[in-house]
Amino acid sequence: MDRSDIDALVLDYLVHEGYKTAAEKMVEEASLSPPTELDHVDDRMKKQRQDVKLTRVLKLLMWLEKQLATKLEVETLDWMGPSKPSSASSASPQTKPDNGDSKPTS
């Protein structure tokens, strides 16, 4: 691999990662022809920043939605009052067979 190949790889990296000023300086100092992507670095980096901001906003909205749903669930349960016992626990307690010597319970 010769020097011009290495310069081209480094320049490609700089452009791809958004280091426009460094790429322009390298083009100038190494007498390389500027890649066409160099003109679009600012636009691409701006779009990436917007995408990151949008992702953060969406994550925040999802978190808020979860918090709200939890709060509404708790408030709904509080509003409904104590939950009704299940059918198994609401059945009358089992009574011992009456052998005539105990008083009826109410």
Automatic annotation (TrEMBL):
InterPro entries the record matches: LisH (IPR006594)
Start-end of Polar residues biased regions: 94-106
Classification via SMART domains: LisH (SM00667)
A Pfam family per the record: LisH
Superkingdom to which the source organism belongs: Eukaryota
Sequence ranges of Basic and acidic residues compositional bias: 37-46
Region (Disordered): 27-46, 78-106
Biased composition (Low complexity): 82-93
Protein name in the entry: Uncharacterized protein
Organism: Salpingoeca rosetta (strain ATCC 50818 / BSB-021)
The organism's taxonomic lineage, starting at the top: Eukaryota, Choanoflagellata, Craspedida, Salpingoecidae, Salpingoeca
